[in-house]
């Protein structure tokens, strides 16, 4: 008896998913570009990683990254050298 209700629920769910359209208004595709990995950039990434591992954060050390108001959100990049794929975005028009 329980399997009958489960089957009906699955059929209704599948029917609902196929009949309801999915819209992608407001979504924007950003082309990804692949950065070439050379020996120098890999060594630089390792050096930065080791430097970050050796330095432990101290209480209040990241005060420069705190937001000035509630509207600002600043996120510092810590290790961007390991990124092989990236997307270029532009803000506004010149």
Ordered list of secondary-structure elements with their pairings:
Blueprint lengths: L1 H18 L12 E3 L4 H16 L30 E3 L7
Antiparallel strand pairs: 1-2
Number of helices: 2
| Average pLDDT score | 72
- What number of domains? 1
Helix content: 25-40%
Radius of gyration, in angstroms, nearest whole number? 24 Å
SSE sequence, one letter per element: HEHE
The strand order across the widest sheet is 1-2
Count the strands? 2
For the sheet with most strands, the description reads: 2 strands, antiparallel
- Beta-strand share of residues: 5-15%
- From the N-terminal CA to the C-terminal CA, the straight-line distance is 66 Å
Question: So what's the overall shape?
Answer: elongated
Q: Uncertain segments of ≥5 residues (pLDDT<50)?
A: none
- Alpha-beta classification: mainly alpha
InterPro entries: Peptidase_aspartic_dom_sf
Protein name: Aspartic proteinase-like
How would you describe this protein?
The chain is mainly α and 94 residues long. It has one domain. A two-stranded antiparallel sheet has the order 1-2. Helix content is 36%, strand content 6%. The model has no long low-confidence stretch (mean pLDDT 72). It comes from Trifolium medium. This is Aspartic proteinase-like.
